[in-house]
Write a structure and sequence with these properties.
alpha/beta; globular
């Protein structure tokens, strides 16, 4: 009997209706469309503006889409892992809130916070539950309402981030398709370059922290850029070498959508032409943990069973990683 692997059997995603364009941002901060596009590749991003709606509400849209696509009932779900840095509340965790809202009464769930690498960390974790035989139907979600922690007077960050959610259904497979391998890394010394200053146990919220805008994303762009290019490329090439893959063997590369120049530099290092790289940053910006599943969702109709796919991400803190998977079904 072949080894049990965790196969993606469906992909779902959701982005809010409101479109925040570069032209609109020009009215908020000292910037312009050319400056943003040249440095990031972003033209617009989606923002969740509906009052009373949060990360869990986007996650619910994804779960319902996955269930509708596959005919799986909410009661059949064993586990839901939500990768996010913008939970509805510090506790309870967003995964449990999503499970309650969709009526998944037999599942357990929890959140993973690995910033932009969160979906990779969650997918790898979920795969182990499948491989062990403990669970049969898992949902892995990456979802972030980044607009809730972005300062729209800070042009270094407000041009980058958008809101969105994406996710996959994982089920056991014994035909060789599924999550094959992963290389995951972290280096906490990078926290000084990309973080949120206040709101945790180190620096709880006070009148002063709010007044000083310490509950928003802080990023030192140049430092993050240099490390992101190197680390994303290193782990992606490591996965290729570990499995004796050349660029011709790879059907698709799915990079975290942080910056077009980072994506292009990593693809060059892997020897991949642009046609094999999933890119939608121009329309959604950086949705943090949601970027990779959003790409899979948009390209699903082009994917073929057995396709070799490499996922790669880099996130604040620092975290980074790469996953090699074989696609489990014909998307068309």
């Amino acid at each position: 009997m072949n080894k049990i692997t965790a196969a993606i059997t469906a992909v779902g995603a959701y982005v809010p209706d409101y479109v925040l364009t570069n032209k609109i941002l020009e009215t908020l901060v000292d910037t312009n469309d050319e400056w943003i596009t040249t440095r990031t590749g972003i033209k617009e991003r989606r923002i969740l503006k509906t009052p009373g709606k949060a990360t869990s509400d986007m996650g619910v849209k994804v779960v319902k889409q996955l269930l509708d696509k596959t005919g799986v009932k909410a009661e059949e779900i064993d586990l839901l892992i939500c990768a996010t840095v913008t939970p509805d509340t510090t506790f309870p965790d967003t995964a449990n809130t999503i499970l309650d809202k969709v009526g998944a009464k037999n599942a357990f769930g929890y959140d993973i916070n690995a910033a932009c690498s969160g979906f990779l960390f969650a997918l790898t974790t979920g795969a182990k539950f499948i491989e062990s035989g403990m669970d049969k139907k898992l949902i892995i979600i990456g979802a972030d309402k980044m607009s809730s922690i972005v300062d729209y007077t800070d042009r270094a960050t407000c041009i980058i981030f958008g809101d969105g959610a994406g996710g996959v259904l994982l089920e056991p497979s014994n035909d060789g398709c599924g999550v094959i391998d992963a290389v995951l890394k972290s280096d906490g010394s990078g926290r000084e370059f990309l973080h949120m200053k206040a709101g945790g146990s180190l620096k709880p919220a006070t009148v002063e922290t709010v007044a000083n805008k310490e509950h928003f994303v802080f990023q030192e762009g140049q430092a993050v850029f240099k490390v992101a290019v190197q680390k994303m490329a290193d782990v992606s090439v490591e996965i290729m070498e570990k499995h004796n893959m050349k660029s011709d063997d790879i059907a698709w590369f799915v990079p975290h959508q942080a910056n077009m120049r980072i994506i292009e530099a990593v693809a060059r290092r892997m020897g991949l032409e642009k046609e094999k790289v999933m890119i939608n940053i121009e329309r959604y910006g950086n949705t943090t943990a949601a970027t990779i599943p959003l790409c899979l969702w948009e390209w699903e109709h082009k994917l073929k069973k057995g396709d070799n796919i490499i996922l790669s991400a880099f996130g604040g803190g620092f975290t980074w990683g790469s996953i090699y998977l074989k696609w489990a079904y014909d998307g068309s």
